[in-house]
Structure formats: structure tokens, C-alpha cells
Amino acid sequence: AIWNLGSINIDMVYALPHMPEPGETLAASSFDQGLGGKGANMSVAAARAGAHACHIGAVGPEGKWTVDRLTEYGVDTRYIAQLDTATGHAIIAVDPSGENQIILYPGANRALTEDQIGQALTAANAGDILLMQNETNMQAEAARIGHQLGLRVAYAAAPFDAEAVQAVLPFIDLLFLNEVEAAQLQAATGKAPQDLGVDDVIVTLGAKGARHFNGRDGSKIDVPAQRVTPVDTTGAGDTFTGYVLAALDRGLPMAQAMTQASRAGALMVTRHGAADVIPDLKEVQEAKF
Ligand code: ADP
């Protein structure tokens, strides 16, 4: 099983004629609301890839529909707390050129408690995967608990924060970075990915594919990207991460896990939206590129 301590956001997307100036009131020409948050995206990806994905998180009163939607996508939602604080949300303004501006309110995503995590993880088995990203509180505590319980601890260092990654480094077995995050981490630590003391480091490179660094023996695996015409890259990295972990949880070797994830990521960039459009395993296996 995959235990994902992660954010759940309501993504509110507004199409605007131009970005608002200070003091300006601007009417949007369209509005879309969807399920997002890196955590939710990764849980949905893992579930759609066939894993038992158990989400540990929190929402407020107006976010109950997000939990229903996660359930509908196959995510186990029993450890999502219902709080009195606002559900995390992103207000996303998009101008006609496709440029965006985002206001992010973490809300309930930063109100998780160590008790809640401890309680959820008492149901975990040694060898299960614990996943985290940097959109919740309690990451270092969860990493430490997961490590003590003998779980395989995975961390996606996004949104990037050098201190947050370094706080979990001693406890993690797998680390996911995109190209920019990998450069930022190298600048902060002075260490190359294979020298971080983490067994498996996976760096995604967008249209250039992905690379695995084996921290035990220094070897590398390169996985090419599929050739597609991107329309919206939102959620590609999250989908990739969820798919890699689901495949590893099924016992597939790293190279195969990454190949499957790269096919899922490629499908994702051909679609608008986040969690709501993550492909399932059958689509990923049958896709022709
Ligand atoms: P992030 O969204 O976190 O920045 P990336 O852009 O590196 O992550 O994308 C994650 C993965 O999704 C890539 O490793 C690749 O497999 C796939 N992907 C992303 N962009 C493209 C693209 N333009 N063409 C094909 N595959 C892509």
C-alpha cells in the first residue's frame, strides 16, 4: 500500500482578458473548478495505476466534495480529517497567452497533527510506501515515524524549499525532483543526487525524460520521454511520481516503473486539468505514441 501525507486543494481557474492591475476589478470570461494539490494528484495517480493509495490529509467544511471525488477515483479516504478551517485552495488567473498567476491558501493542509499521522500509520505494514510533498505541515515528523516503522519513505521536493528537504533527507529512501529542484538542491547541499545518502533519486526532465540515480552504487538509468504535443503540463510530475511508486509497490524494477510513469506523464501533458484527468493503467498501457 501507499500512504500519502498530502495536500488537497480546490483549484479555481479564471480566464481573464489580461492580468489585473493593483486596484483593478476584472470580470473573468470563464470559471472552472477542479480537484488539485500535489498530494491529491499523487494519490489519484497511484490509485489509477492500481495501487492501494491511502491519503492522509485534511479538508474544511466546503471541501467535502473533494473527498467524495478522491473516493470516486479509488483513493482510500478514511484518514482524511474534516476540520473547521478552510480547505486549501488555489485561485488561478490565466491570461489569453496562457500565462498564469496563482494565489495559494494552504488552509487545512497545514493543520495536520502528529497524532493523526501516527494513528493512520499504525495500520501500515513494513515495506509499505510512505509519500510526502512540501504542501503540508508535519513532513519531518511523518518521515521519522515512517522510517522507524520500516516503511519505504518517499519525498517529492515540491514546491522546493531547501530546509524542508534537508529536514527529511536522513529518513527517506526515495527522492523525486524535477530539473529545477535538482539544481536548487545541489546548490543548497553542494552534493550531486547520487551523493545525498538517499537510495533512489529520480530527476524528471520534462520532454527530455527522466533519470534515476542509484545512491548505493552510483549507477544511473535514463528513461526517454514519449513524443507528444503538450497543451497543459499541470500534474505531469505528480502523475509520474504516483505511477513510479505504484509500480514499485507492485514489485516492478525501477526501469520498468519509470517507463510506465513516463507514458502516464506524457498522456497528462496532452490534457487540461489536474487530478480529474489522470489516466488509468489500461489507458497508459494501450496508448500509442
Ligand atoms: P514537473 O511537472 O514536476 O516539473 P516534469 O516537467 O519533469 O515534472 O514532467 C514529469 C514527467 O512527465 C517527465 O519526466 C516526462 O516523463 C513527462 N513529461 C513532461 N513533459 C513532457 C513533454 N513535453 N513530453 C513528453 N513527456 C513529458
Automatic annotation (TrEMBL):
Requires a divalent cation, most likely magnesium in vivo, as an electrophilic catalyst to aid phosphoryl group transfer. It is the chelate of the metal and the nucleotide that is the actual substrate. Signal peptide: none annotated. The active site is at residue 238. It comes from the Bacteria. Pathway: Carbohydrate metabolism; D-ribose degradation; D-ribose 5-phosphate from beta-D-ribopyranose: step 2/2. K(+) binds at residues 232, 234, 268, 271, 273. Activated by a monovalent cation that binds near, but not in, the active site. The most likely occupant of the site in vivo is potassium. Ion binding induces a conformational change that may alter substrate affinity. Substrate binds at residues 9-11, 37-41, 135, 238. Residues 5-279 form the Carbohydrate kinase PfkB domain. InterPro entries: PfkB_dom (IPR011611), Ribo/fructo_kinase (IPR002139), Ribokinase (IPR011877), Ribokinase-like (IPR029056). Belongs to the carbohydrate kinase PfkB family. Ribokinase subfamily. Catalyzes the phosphorylation of ribose at O-5 in a reaction requiring ATP and magnesium. The resulting D-ribose-5-phosphate can then be used either for sythesis of nucleotides, histidine, and tryptophan, or as a component of the pentose phosphate pathway. This is Ribokinase. It comes from Tritonibacter scottomollicae. The lineage of its organism: Bacteria, Pseudomonadati, Pseudomonadota, Alphaproteobacteria, Rhodobacterales.
